C-alpha cells in the first residue's frame, strides 16, 4: 500500500494558466461559481499577475491544492469578499473530478480555515451552498461550519430556481 502524499496549498503560478483556463471555462461548474460568460486567457493571465498582490489589496485569495511530491494539482480553494475590518471572508473550493472522494477537499479546507484564522486573523468564514449540493454540505459541516439560514429560490439553474444554504464558521 502506498503512503498518501502530503497536500499543500500554493499560490497561482504562470504555468497554471492552461488549467485555470480549462476549469474557469467549464460550463458544468458555472452554476456553483456564479459564472455567466467564458474567460479569455488574456483575462486569466492578468488575474494570475494580480493574484501576487496582497490579499488586503485584492480582497481575494485563490490557492492551488497540490500533492507535494508528484506536484499533481487536485483543485483550487478561494477566499473571496475578504473584509479585514470585519475580519471575515467567503470560502469556495473545487476538486477535480478525478480526485474526489479521497479526503483532499477535507484536508485542504481544514488547512485553509486554519490559515485564515491564524495568519489572516479572520474571526469568521462563510460559504454559500446550493441546497442540492450534498457533497459540499457534508464537507463544510464535517469541518465545523454551521448552517445559519436558507435563501429561498436564490440560484437560477437550468431546471429553475433552487434554495441556497448559508454556512458560517466562527474562530
UniProtKB/TrEMBL annotation:
Gene3D superfamilies: 3.40.630.30. Residues 7-171 form the N-acetyltransferase domain. It comes from the Bacteria. Signal peptide: none annotated. Pfam families: Acetyltransf_3. InterPro entries: Acyl_CoA_acyltransferase, GNAT_dom. This is GNAT family N-acetyltransferase. It comes from Carboxylicivirga marina. The lineage of its organism: Bacteria, Pseudomonadati, Bacteroidota, Bacteroidia, Marinilabiliales.
Amino acid at each position: 500500500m502506498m503512503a498518501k502524499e502530503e497536500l499543500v496549498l500554493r499560490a497561482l503560478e504562470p504555468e497554471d494558466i492552461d488549467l485555470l483556463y480549462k476549469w474557469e471555462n467549464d460550463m458544468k461548474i458555472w452554476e456553483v461559481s456564479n459564472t455567466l460568460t467564458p474567460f479569455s486567457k488574456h483575462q486569466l493571465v492578468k488575474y494570475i499577475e494580480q493574484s501576487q498582490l496582497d490579499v488586503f489589496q485584492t480582497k481575494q485569495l485563490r490557492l492551488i491544492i497540490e500533492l507535494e511530491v508528484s506536484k499533481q494539482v487536485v483543485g483550487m480553494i478561494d477566499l473571496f469578499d475578504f473584509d479585514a475590518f470585519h475580519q471575515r471572508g467567503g470560502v469556495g473550493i473545487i476538486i477535480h473530478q478525478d480526485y474526489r472522494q479521497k479526503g483532499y477537499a477535507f484536508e485542504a479546507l481544514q488547512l485553509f480555515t486554519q490559515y485564515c484564522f491564524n495568519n489572516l486573523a479572520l474571526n469568521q468564514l462563510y460559504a454559500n451552498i446550493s441546497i442540492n449540493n450534498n457533497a459540499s454540505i457534508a464537507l463544510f459541516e464535517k469541518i465545523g461550519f454551521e448552517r445559519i439560514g436558507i435563501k429561498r429560490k436564490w440560484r437560477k439553474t437550468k431546471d429553475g430556481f433552487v434554495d441556497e444554504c448559508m454556512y458560517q464558521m466562527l474562530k
